[in-house]
Amino acid sequence: xxxxxxxxxxxxxxxxxxxxxxxxxxxxxxxxxxxxxxxxxxxxxxxxxxxxxxxxxxxxxxxxxxxxxxxxxxxxxxxxxxxxxxxxxxxxxxxxxxxxxxxxxxxxxxxxxxxxxxxxxxxxxxxxxxxxxxxxxxxxxxxxxxxxxxxxxxxxxxxxxxxxxxxxxxxxxxxxxxxxx
Length: 181
Known about the structure:
The protein is an alpha+beta fold. 48% of the residues lie in helices and 9% in strands. It contains eight helices and four strands. A four-stranded antiparallel sheet has the order 1-2-3-4. A hairpin with a 5-residue loop joins strand 2 and strand 3 (106-110).
């Protein structure tokens, strides 16, 4: 196991939240977490939280690659980061994790400094372990990619179930930015 998995790992049964959509976050709750973490969240992220509140755990039918964590879980995960040796790095670059998958990988936002608003990944076993370079310019561009990935997964699922043809799959796939590169 990698050091990052050990940071976020632990007893899976104890740390698994229920599968529910959170209520939209109140501005006061967002402000309280910003104060606790010592950062200011990008406006686009605040807007997403006030509209959705995040998802506690992905539903088995979800096609999302990463889920937006509810504010309580954001606080918990970022507290774990601080407790397990990454506090100085997180503070220095105002790094806050907001998205998670079910494999102890996270995506977050630089909430200050020259990288303000850019997205980074914490991948516990990937080729860039420990590389927190920005991978998206903004919350908006990251959300577009997440939406495209979910749509792509849905289309592939339809193809695998025999509900659409290879030609239809090709036609749908050609709409995506990742397909054109």
